[in-house]
């Protein structure tokens, strides 16, 4: 396997042939006769290093190098000038144009190979460092995102005990899902199921009712995920199926969210049932008192 790709730019065919012969055993090489052709070739050819003559017809090597540095694709591609001009002024102009190195003709083969290898390796090291830095940044960002999401779950835990009805509970679950960037529907399974985020006769409502009765806890349907933790059923309509890491993280967060909401939901339904029982008990007592009053009144009249 070749160690990289080198573009040789020189108007002299014999110079291109010589440089190609020196490099062919270790590198894939391509040739351009002048600066214009070099810039045109870069639309489809992406070299790891460019050997560039200074004196060429049309635009000079210096101007070609300046143009290379203005292009995003070649802004950091190593450029080595190969020129018969060896004055300090010529070298300085080459480096000012953006070159990484400067070789003079006639070329020493060992020096050429050493320079090419050195600059390509530097480029590979920079790319590896940038990739590692990007990966580290991605990990850090994911950790920060996960921390933020967990913070929202913790805040939900703190606030959920103060919620006293199923509509407030459903709204709180929807709010957390929205903070996650998710489009959700929530069903609280009471005597008459309470729905938020969809209509009673909607497709989403029918899916949640069907899933509730299936006994399954979690089901994934592409970008849709349904989580059931009685009495809560949560339907997410835009899960990030193309982002495996975020998908898995959100799925876990939502399962925890559903469980926390479920515990409070059971408490709310129990409280509702007890209130209804108290109402019924009071009605019975009132009815008994009224019956006794009526009975007493009847006895007095007799």
What does this 3D model show about the protein?
- The protein is of the alpha/beta class.
- The protein folds into 2 domains: 5-132, Response regulator (Rossmann fold, 3-Layer(aba) Sandwich); 161-288, 2-Layer Sandwich (Beta-Lactamase).
- Helices cover 57% and strands 15% of the residues.
- The protein contains 8 helices and 10 strands.
- It has helices at residues 13-23, 35-41, 61-70, 88-96, 109-160, 166-179, 203-214, 244-301, and strands at 5-9, 28-32, 49-52, 79-83, 101-104, 184-188, 194-196, 218-221, 224-229, 232-236.
- A 5-stranded parallel β-sheet has the order 2-1-3-4-5, sandwiched between helices. A 5-stranded antiparallel β-sheet has the order 7-6-10-9-8, sandwiched between helices.
- Strand 4, helix 4 and strand 5 (101-104) form a beta-alpha-beta unit.
- Helix 5 (109-160) runs parallel beside helix 8 (244-301).
- It is rod-shaped.
- The termini are far apart.
- Pfam families: Response_reg (PF00072).
- The modification 4-aspartylphosphate is found at residue 53.
- InterPro entries: CheY-like_superfamily, Sig_transdc_resp-reg_receiver, WalR-like.
């Amino acid at each position: 396997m070749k160690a990289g790709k080198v573009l040789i730019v020189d108007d002299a065919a014999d110079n291109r042939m010589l440089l190609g012969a020196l490099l062919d055993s270790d590198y894939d090489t391509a040739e351009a006769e002048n600066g214009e052709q070099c810039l045109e070739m870069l639309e489809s050819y992406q070299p790891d290093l460019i050997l560039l003559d200074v004196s060429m017809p049309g635009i000079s090597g210096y101007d070609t190098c300046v143009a290379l540095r203005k292009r995003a694709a070649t802004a950091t591609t190593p450029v080595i000038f190969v020129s018969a001009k060896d004055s300090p002024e010529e070298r300085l102009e080459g480096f000012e144009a953006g070159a990484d190195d400067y070789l003079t003709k006639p070329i020493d083969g060992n020096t050429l190979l050493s320079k090419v290898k050195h600059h390509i390796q530097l480029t590979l090291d920079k790319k590896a460092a940038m990739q590692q830095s990007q990966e580290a940044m991605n990990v850090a960002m994911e950790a920060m995102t996960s921390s933020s999401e967990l913070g929202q779950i913790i805040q939900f835990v703190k606030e959920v005990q103060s919620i006293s009805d199923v509509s407030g509970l459903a709204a709180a679950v929807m709010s957390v899902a929205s903070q996650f960037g998710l489009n959700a529907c929530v069903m609280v399974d009471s005597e008459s199921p309470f729905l938020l985020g969809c209509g009673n006769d909607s497709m989403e409502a029918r899916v949640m009712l069907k899933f509730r009765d299936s006994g399954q806890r979690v089901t994934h349907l592409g970008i849709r995920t349904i989580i059931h933790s009685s009495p809560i059923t949560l339907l997410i309509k835009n899960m990030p199926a193309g982002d495996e890491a975020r998908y898995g993280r959100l799925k876990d967060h939502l399962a925890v969210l559903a469980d926390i909401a479920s515990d409070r939901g059971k408490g709310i339904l129990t409280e509702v049932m007890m209130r209804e029982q108290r109402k019924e008990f009071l009605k019975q007592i009132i009815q008994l008192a009224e019956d006794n009053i009526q009975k007493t009144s009847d006895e007095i009249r007799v």
